[in-house]
């Protein structure tokens, strides 16, 4: 309808009126003119579309909108145009360093050029464009990438990732049946898509065969062309005679011939590794090589080449001509390639690669192996290349199967469809295996007839893992369906109740199945296998709850059954579940199995013994029936029924199928005592691990054989010999497994205790040397040399070196384990002591005790002979140094804080001078918890023989403080260093002296002024004391000065006298106070003794000076009074009249 409505909306092709049945017009309607398409709409659409695709700004796209833009758009929008292209082209630059620039153009014709970076194809969906509707609904946009060597990869991605999946999604959504699709040609279309995808893939994978063009001398070329024009056969007579004798011309020809030989040899010696790449690459390589060789052969038969050879023969340069004919190897290469291509031509590989369903894949497998098996007898294609070719075909076969099966989403399909697909897939695998056997036989026969070097005919199929997964998946889905049927609401257990034990069985089973649906069940990679295992475990956990509840219900029903008929009715209701492992009364899940394990009975032998015990018990019961009913009881109706049931049950107890299955399994497995002693195993979490290359199944094998022989089974001779070999090496294998396990655990201990690596390095290296030695030993040596050691006559006969290696390796690993465990315990105690160094009380005794423990541990390590002890002790000493340096730093900070702390009331109480005795020597005051404190030093200002002095002097305080600091630092610095070569018994190594036996060097390792700070504080405190004491010592002048000397110095200047009195009053504040001491924190100045005497002396001086000042002041007052009185008298005698009459001048 859109196609029909389009012309009407655009006003095209409309009649003047409706037409009646006779073709007459009833009335006329005026025609509407077509609505032209507006190019501006297309322009705005391009400006929104192209910038993000091209990575360009709208300004860069101006070159698209040239003068012809509107005309091109109009043609494109009309009925004529169907597509238009927008090309982004890279511009050429003379300089390679210049940044790239691009140009853009709009065109209706598509061309290919390497400079085209991107091409956008804009395709109309309808016949015309309507500017009134959104263009996004009227246009297709396709990005055609460029700037590649070839467009094959882009086209392949476009077909395989977009067009083909879109078509298949449409066909799948339409839901047509297979017959309906065939009628519409959908399978043919699918095949064409697959073939196109395959062709593009082949174009990518083709090995480029270099094209060889033989360059001919221009003179030869001209002569040949002239001869052809004249209709004559070219010959050397057409060349000038002087040219034939020209040595430079002949040398040029000879050089050209040599170049031809090298070029041809490049092609004839070309080869490829068939094990790399795909099968199509191998096939295309030989087909392309044949075409290239035929092209070279055609050039060699040309007139130009023949004339060159004739010229060289005429000049008697036979060396060049003979070399040209013999050294190229063209004829041999062509012969070989032609024979090889008997196999490669018409190879039906494309039938496999383009197959769209399982039937086509199976047909392709039959065609491929039919072609190989038929042509391999005719073509001399080497068997050593045919085997990797079949492996490559197996990879293509695996990928094609995955592609087809993945498209069906197996777990989402109904069970019938699932079973049909997987049955068909298993049939395909059987077809492959059958043809593979035929191929193997033919390859062996051909190899024998050709006399080729013998190689084992073994093909490792790439689809083996997929085959195992599909087989397992099929069984798993079958069991799930049986469980789902039984838990459905209308079937099976519906009568019992959908909920048993508080869980909804149907919902639980569905949720368990949903876990599996979320994963890719066909992913057989390592990661995919891990995901499958995790999902299956989650499924089993959910299903196990349902099974346990059903089993409990079944047991309850059986327990309440009153007779056998009721039991059989219960079994008939649950019979569909008896195929599941949990519902089978199997040997593996019985108590007898666990008892057999305790008695060291392997599984198969235990199952056979268990079945025979049940059979004997059945015979006993049947004998009792005969004893009760008499002979011929089986002739009665009920007896016949019992007899048939017992016979059927006896058939179930037949152990022959179990034994045959075991034989088949052993024959299928590649078991044997061989290979290297050790193997390196890759761990899942990354890394590698040493393991013993010994299959535990071999141990089970010889136990099975031993018990089966006791049960009178005829075990094949090959399996018996294999079991004997396993029995011979069993003790050594178990010893090696235990030794390797111990070795791995010990290395884990060393890894978890990083500090002991150096100590046990020698023992570890010895173990590694043993492993290196054992890597070259094979299990075959134990088997072949066992008899010699077994039948040695003398008790002191030396064991062979391989058995001796096992013992030595066990001994070395045992020593490594013992040494590691011993040093770990010692190392933990040692680390505990090292850590306690940072928290122990700050006393020499505490430090010496801990360092003594550390040194004792080191001495023990030394006496036990651990390696690298010097280096290890040096590292430990650095760690101890770091801890002690922190303690010393903290002590210095504590000293500074104590030294800077001002005096408080408690300190004055502690240092109260009740006794008034000064300490001659200050000592460190250490509290019971190990903290440190400084005791204040008391200095007394005394006067004796009229001399004031300080007792003890200030220098004593400095000496005491520095001594206290040295004592605090010496607590750590005087400690003896740990040593690696010291013994508790005092043995000293001669000629070995240790330069630094203590930790005094710690004082040189402060990075800042930590050590200088306490000395600076001491000097500051000493200076403060000096300044204060100097004030008291000034009062010595009270006794030293003479009164007359002071009076004479002052003279009669009352200002000096007044200044002195003021200073005396001010200085009195120093001693005229109720305090008797001055505290400086860590130092106290006591001035009680001198205070009273200085005060009395000061009072005497003050009284003398004050009285003398009074006398001076009285005299001065008298003199001033006399002067004032005299001046008054003089003024009174002068007359004011004379002064009044005098003229005034201003």
In short:
Helix content is 61%, strand content 6%.
- Fourth-level CATH superfamily of the largest domain: Dynein motor heavy chain, linker domain, N-terminal subdomain
Which class do the helix and strand fractions yield?
mainly alpha
Rg measurement, Å = 57 Å
Please work out how many helical segments DSSP would assign.
Answer: 41
How far apart, in Å, are the first and last alpha carbons? Answer: 132 Å
The CATH class of the largest domain turns out to be: Mainly Alpha
State the low-pLDDT regions, or none: 1-32, 494-500, 786-798, 903-930, 984-994
What value does the average pLDDT take?
A: 76
Describe the sheet with the most strands: 4 strands, antiparallel
Domain Dynein heavy chain tail: 250-586, 591-786
Region (Disordered): 1-31, 907-928
Protein name: Dynein heavy chain tail domain-containing protein
Biased composition (Polar residues): 10-19
């Amino acid at each position: 309808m859109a196609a029909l409505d389009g012309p009407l909306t655009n006003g095209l092709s409309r009649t003047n009126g409706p037409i009646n049945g006779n073709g007459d017009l009833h009335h006329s309607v005026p025609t509407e003119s077509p609505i032209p398409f507006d190019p501006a709409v297309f322009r705005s659409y391009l400006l929104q579309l192209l910038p993000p695709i091209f990575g360009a700004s709208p300004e860069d796209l101006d070159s698209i909108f040239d003068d012809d833009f509107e005309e091109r758009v109009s043609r494109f929008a009309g009925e004529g145009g169907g597509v238009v292209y927008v090309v982004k082209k890279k511009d050429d630059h003379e300089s390679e360093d210049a940044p790239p620039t691009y140009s853009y153009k709009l065109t209706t014709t598509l061309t290919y050029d390497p400079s085209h970076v991107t091409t956008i194809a804009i395709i109309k969906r309808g016949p015309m464009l309507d500017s009134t509707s959104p263009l996004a609904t009227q246009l297709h946009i396709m990005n055609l990438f460029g700037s590649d060597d070839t467009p094959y990869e882009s086209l392949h991605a476009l077909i395989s990732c977009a067009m083909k999946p879109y078509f298949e999604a449409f066909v799948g959504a339409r839901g047509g049946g297979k017959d309906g699709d065939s009628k519409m040609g959908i399978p043919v279309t699918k095949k064409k898509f697959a073939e196109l995808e395959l062709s593009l893939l082949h174009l990518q994978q083709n090995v480029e065969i270099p094209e060889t063009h033989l360059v001919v001398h221009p003179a030869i070329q001209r002569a040949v062309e002239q001869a052809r024009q004249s209709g004559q056969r070219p010959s050397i007579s057409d060349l000038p005679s002087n040219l034939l004798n020209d040595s430079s011309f002949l040398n040029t020809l000879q050089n050209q011939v040599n170049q031809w030989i090298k070029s041809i040899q490049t092609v004839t010696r070309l080869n490829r590794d068939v094990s790399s790449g795909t099968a199509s690459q191998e096939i295309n390589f030989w087909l392309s090589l044949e075409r290239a060789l035929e092209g070279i052969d055609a050039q060699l038969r040309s007139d130009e080449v023949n004339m060159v050879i004739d010229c060289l023969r005429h000049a008697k340069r036979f060396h060049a001509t003979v070399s040209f004919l013999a050294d190229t190897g063209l004829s041999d290469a062509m012969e070989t390639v032609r024979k090889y291509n008997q196999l490669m031509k018409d190879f039906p590989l494309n039938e496999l690669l383009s197959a769209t369903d399982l039937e086509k894949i199976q047909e392709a497998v039959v065609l491929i192996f039919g072609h190989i098996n038929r042509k391999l007898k005719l073509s001399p294609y080497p068997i050593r290349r045919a085997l990797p070719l079949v492996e490559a075909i197996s990879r293509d076969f695996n990928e094609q199967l995955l592609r087809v099966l993945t498209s069906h989403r197996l777990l989402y399909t109904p069970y019938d469809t699932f079973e049909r697909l997987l049955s068909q897939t298993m049939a395909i695998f059987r077809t492959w295996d059958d043809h593979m056997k035929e191929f193997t036989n033919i390859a062996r026969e051909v190899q024998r007839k050709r006399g080729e070097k013998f190689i084992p005919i073994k093909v490792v199929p790439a689809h083996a893992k997929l085959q195992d997964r599909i087989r397992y998946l099929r069984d798993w889905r079958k069991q799930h369906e049986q469980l789902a049927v039984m838990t459905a609401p209308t079937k099976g257990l519906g009568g019992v109740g959908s909920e048993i034990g508080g869980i909804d069985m149907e919902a639980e089973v569905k949720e368990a199945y949903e876990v599996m649906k979320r994963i890719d069940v066909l992913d057989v990679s390592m990661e995919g296998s891990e995901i499958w295992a995790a999902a299956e475990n989650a499924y089993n956990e959910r299903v196990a709850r349902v099974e346990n509840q059903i089993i409990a219900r079944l047991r309850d029903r059986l327990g309440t059954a009153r007779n056998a008929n009721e039991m059989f009715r219960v079994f008939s209701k649950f019979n569909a579940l008896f195929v599941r492992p949990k519902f089978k009364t199997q040997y593996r899940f019985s108590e007898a199995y666990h008892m057999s394990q305790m008695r060291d009975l392997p599984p198969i032998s235990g199952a056979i013994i268990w079945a025979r015990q049940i059979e004997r018990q059945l015979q006993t019961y049947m004998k009792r029936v005969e004893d009760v009913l008499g002979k011929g009881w089986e002739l009665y109706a009920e007896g016949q029924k019992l007899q048939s049931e017992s016979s059927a049950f006896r058939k179930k107890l037949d152990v022959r199928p179990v034994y045959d299955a075991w034989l088949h399994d052993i024959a299928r497995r590649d078991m044997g005592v061989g290979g290297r002693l050790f193997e390196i195993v890759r761990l899942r979490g990354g890394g590698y691990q040493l393991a013993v290359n010994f299959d535990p199944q071999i141990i089970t094998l010889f136990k099975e054989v031993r018990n089966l022989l006791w049960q009178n089974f005829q075990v094949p001779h090959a399996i018996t010999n294999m079991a004997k070999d396993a029995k011979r090496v069993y003790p050594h294998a178990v010893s090696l497994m235990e030794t390797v396990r111990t070795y791995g655990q010990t290395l884990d201990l060393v890894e978890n205790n990083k500090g002991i690596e150096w100590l046990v390095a020698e023992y570890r290296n010895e173990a590694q040397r043993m492993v290196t030695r054992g890597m070259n030993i094979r299990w075959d040596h134990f088997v072949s040399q066992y008899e010699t050691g077994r039948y040695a006559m003398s008790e002191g006969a030396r064991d062979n070196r391989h058995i001796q290696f096992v013992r030595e390796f066990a001994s070395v690993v045992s020593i490594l384990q013992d040494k590691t465990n011993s040093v770990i315990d010692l190392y933990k105690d040692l680390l505990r002591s090292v850590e306690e160094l940072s928290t122990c009380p700050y006393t020499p005794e505490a430090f010496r005790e801990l360092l003594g423990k550390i040194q004792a541990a080191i001495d023990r390590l030394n006496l036990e002979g651990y390696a690298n002890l010097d280096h290890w002790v040096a590292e430990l000493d650095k760690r101890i140094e770091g801890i002690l340096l922190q303690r010393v730093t903290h002590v210095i900070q504590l000293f500074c804080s104590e030294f800077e702390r001002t005096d408080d009331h408690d300190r004055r109480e502690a240092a109260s001078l009740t006794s008034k005795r000064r300490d001659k020597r200050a000592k460190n005051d250490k509290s019971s918890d190990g903290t440190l404190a400084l005791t204040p030093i008391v200095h007394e200002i005394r006067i004796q023989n009229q001399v004031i002095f300080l007792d003890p002097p200030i220098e004593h305080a400095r000496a005491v403080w520095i001594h206290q600091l040295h004592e605090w630092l010496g607590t750590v610095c005087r400690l003896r260093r740990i040593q690696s070569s010291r013994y508790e018994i005092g043995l000293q190594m001669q000629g070995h002296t240790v330069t630094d036996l203590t930790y005094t060097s710690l004082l040189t390792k402060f990075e800042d002024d930590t050590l200088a700070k306490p000395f600076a504080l001491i000097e500051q405190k000493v200076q403060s004391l000096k300044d204060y004491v100097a004030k008291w010592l000034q009062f010595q002048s009270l006794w030293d000065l003479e009164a007359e000397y002071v009076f004479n110095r002052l003279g009669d200047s009352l200002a000096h006298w007044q200044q002195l009195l003021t200073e005396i009053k001010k200085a009195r504040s120093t001693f005229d106070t109720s305090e008797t001491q001055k505290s400086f924190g860590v130092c106290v100045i006591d001035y009680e003794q001198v205070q009273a005497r200085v005060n009395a002396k000061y009072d005497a001086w003050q009284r003398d000076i004050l009285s003398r000042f009074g006398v001076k002041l009285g005299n001065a007052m008298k003199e001033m009074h006399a002067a004032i009185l005299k001046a008054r008298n003089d003024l009174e005698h002068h007359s004011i009249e004379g002064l009044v009459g005098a003229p005034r001048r201003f």
